[in-house]
From TrEMBL:
Residues 1-95 form the THAP-type domain. It comes from Oedothorax gibbosus. Keywords: DNA-binding, Metal-binding, Zinc, Zinc-finger. GO terms for molecular function: sequence-specific DNA binding; zinc ion binding. This is THAP-type domain-containing protein. SUPFAM superfamilies: Glucocorticoid receptor-like (DNA-binding domain). InterPro entries: THAP1/10, THAP_Znf, THAP_Znf_sf. Pfam families: THAP. The lineage of its organism: Eukaryota, Metazoa, Ecdysozoa, Arthropoda, Chelicerata.
Length: 120
């Protein structure tokens, strides 16, 4: 059973998605980065467990490493990774299907304005 995204109203990897699997990422071990993730994720009084994950839908594509590149005989070869990984310091920021009201005071005014623009 694949891990399910912990973001409110996200149904990634639930049975209702009928076998469509999306990659998920564990919370960072670095406490500063972990608290930034928790601040961004719109979920009240949430304390992630060791199994809590966030799916790829909440990260911009440029935050996700899907290929490894190696230099072989003077040429760069790209190989698709079996399991994508996040670039260091990546933070989940895409929550476009969620109403702004759920974000409460944890979200800055600048972030709320950006989300309003994304919804249009």
């Amino acid at each position: 059973m694949p891990d399910r995204c912990c973001v409110t109203n996200c149904k990634s990897n639930y049975k209702s998605t009928k076998g469509v699997y999306v990659s998920v990422f564990k919370f960072p071990k670095d406490e500063r980065l972990k608290s930034e993730w928790m601040r961004k994720i719109p979920r009240q009084d949430f304390e992630p467990s060791q199994r809590s994950v966030v799916c790829e839908k909440h990260f911009h594509d440029d935050c996700i490493i899907r290929y490894d590149e190696i230099l072989r005989n003077g040429e760069i070869c790209r190989f698709q990774r079996k399991n994508p990984k996040l670039k260091p310091g990546s933070i989940p920021t895409i929550f476009s299907w969620m109403p702004i009201i759920l974000f409460g005071t944890r979200t800055s005014e600048k972030e709320k304005q950006r989300r309003k623009i994304e919804e249009k």
